[in-house]
Amino acid sequence: MNDHATGMTPTGRSSSDLLKRRAGNLAAGALGAAIINVLMVGAMWVIEVADYVLPGEFDVYGIRSWDPDGLGGIFLAPFLHAGFGHLMANSLPLLILGFLAALRGIGRFLAASLIIVLVSGLGVWFTSSPTAITVGASGLVFGYFGFVVARGLFDRRALDIVIGVGVAIAYYSIIWGVLPGEAGISWQGHLFGLVGGVIAAWVVRRRRRRAVAPAY
């Protein structure tokens, strides 16, 4: 007797069971995505309040361009802001885009966030004025935008494509932020954040399994 692989669904697993499991996974992912983004934005607000109340300026720990000692600011800058107005402008898009970026799993989200922070931060460090100190989560906002849109292209899952198209339509106007414009606004952080988001979507994309020929 010859053994061979078939494409049949395991006994007892109906399509409704699969739909329920996927719905449960999506609900769990949505809850985790909401929690981690609320915690992240909440941490930014706590730091900004502390910066307002305590003596000294936290912003000096941002990205100091062309200064080797300022490289550590790459990881600190997203949590620092030049006042509450700056933080408020970033908070809502960060919550929305960060939530959508985290829907497919916290591990992928954290890996994508690290890539975005590194690409955006290094881009700012290399291309900004040597006298500039850059702070703010705008790089993450643009990064999550690029990540969510590109994820639909790379993963080609129906839900990711729909989300990517929706985000592209809703936030298309932010693309202008990657161009040099208003003084005091780091277009470099926006541009390299967007690039980092696309790179992250490629790096953490779903790997498709190669089709295995039946064994006889």
List the helices and strands and how they pair.
Blueprint (H helix, E strand, L loop, with lengths): L14 H39 L9 E2 L8 H4 L7 H19 L3 H22 L5 E2 L3 H18 L2 H14 L15 H17 L13
Antiparallel strand pairs: 1-2
Helix pairs in contact: 1-3, 3-5, 4-5, 4-7, 5-6, 5-7
Distance between the termini: 9 Å
* Helical content class: 55-70%
Indicate the overall shape: globular
> How many β-strand runs?
2
Q: What Rg is obtained from the alpha carbons, in whole angstroms?
A: 21 Å
| Biggest sheet features | 2 strands, antiparallel
Order of adjacent strands in the largest pleated sheet? 1-2
Walk me through this protein's architecture.
Helix 4 crosses helix 5 (138-155). 37% of the residues are buried. It contains 7 helices and 2 strands, in the order αβαααβααα. With 216 residues, the protein is an all-alpha fold. The chain crosses the membrane at residues 23-47, 74-102, 109-126, 132-154, 161-179, 185-204.
Question: Any descriptors?
Answer:
216 residues, transmembrane helix, globular, Rhomboid-like_sf, membrane, disordered C terminus
Give a summary of the structure in a few sentences.
It comes from Streptosporangium oxazolinicum. The protein is mostly helical and 216 residues long.
